[in-house]
């Protein structure tokens, strides 16, 4: 294992954790960075499997709330409805993701030009939605009705195109369907847990036979880096978006997408 590959895995893991829960497309960032660094993983498994670090980061921050929900589940109807809402929102991605897995990994993950375009388009959409004078009906993610959860679930499926952003699509969908900025981000956090865990498990099942010891080493390095950086983001994001909204992330998408597009046109 070359030390350069370990360093690249560390950098990509940090990038995963920093971008997974903000609406800028962590997969898009990692694929673009990997493209320009010349980083290649077996079956593009690294890019999916290091998400386990980000999953554990959000689980650790929300452990108290999740435990309370678990203990309240038998007796509290509101908690049961919220858990059902998360499962309903997860269902479209589970079905479509399994059916389209090979196309996503072999075609969409291999098209950096598409990623840059989606980053730019998503940036404009995020800036536009952030400036709308929306009148939110829901100020707590636990109050989202089931039809709204299902709609968010279908909107999340757009993120199967790298560069769109899972958190970005769910947040924008939630905002347009009546959520305030904080509850939109929090629902995206909760929906991330089954969605990312499902993607991790399915990708591991598909690729475990092809992974070597060196692949496992770089995945572990990326996983640890993603956990540490993801922990920081989850702890601070809700307070940030409550005060400042999502405009910063829209401008960031335009910057990264634009620079990436120029670099691809010049260097390929």
UniProtKB/TrEMBL annotation:
Top-level EC class as recorded in UniProt: hydrolase
GO process terms (BP): cell wall organization; peptidoglycan biosynthetic process; regulation of cell shape; response to antibiotic
GO cellular component terms, A-Z: plasma membrane
Membrane topology category: Multi-pass membrane protein
Highest taxon above the source species: Bacteria
Coiled-coil regions, chain positions: none
Miscellaneous remark of the record: Bacitracin is thought to be involved in the inhibition of peptidoglycan synthesis by sequestering undecaprenyl diphosphate, thereby reducing the pool of lipid carrier available.
PANTHER family from the UniProt entry: UNDECAPRENYL-DIPHOSPHATASE
Protein name: Undecaprenyl-diphosphatase
Gene name, Swiss-Prot/TrEMBL: uppP
């Amino acid at each position: 294992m070359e030390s350069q590959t370990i360093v690249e895995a560390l950098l990509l893991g940090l990038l995963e954790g920093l971008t997974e829960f903000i609406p800028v497309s962590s997969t898009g960032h990692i694929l673009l960075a990997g493209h320009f660094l010349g980083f290649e993983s077996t079956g593009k498994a690294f890019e999916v499997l290091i998400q386990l670090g980000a999953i554990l980061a959000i689980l650790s921050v929300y452990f108290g709330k999740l435990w309370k929900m678990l203990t309240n589940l038998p007796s509290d109807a509101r908690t049961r409805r919220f858990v059902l809402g998360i499962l309903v929102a997860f269902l479209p991605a589970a079905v479509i993701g399994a059916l389209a897995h090979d196309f996503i990994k072999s075609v969409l993950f291999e098209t950096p030009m598409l990623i840059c375009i989606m980053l730019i388009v998503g940036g404009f959409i995020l800036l536009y939605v952030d400036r709308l004078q929306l009148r939110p009906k829901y100020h707590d993610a636990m109050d989202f009705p089931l039809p709204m959860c299902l709609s968010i679930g279908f909107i999340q499926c757009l993120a199967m195109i790298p560069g769109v952003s899972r958190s970005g699509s769910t947040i924008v969908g939630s905002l347009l369907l009546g959520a305030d900025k904080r509850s939109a981000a929090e629902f995206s956090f909760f929906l991330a847990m089954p969605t990312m865990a499902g993607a991790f498990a399915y990708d591991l099942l598909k690729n475990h036979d092809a992974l070597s010891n060196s692949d496992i080493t770089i995945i572990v390095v990326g996983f640890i880096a993603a956990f540490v950086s993801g922990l920081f983001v989850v702890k601070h994001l809700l307070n940030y978006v409550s005060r400042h909204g999502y405009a910063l992330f829209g401008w960031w998408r335009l910057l990264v997408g634009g620079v990436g597009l120029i670099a691809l046109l010049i260097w390929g």
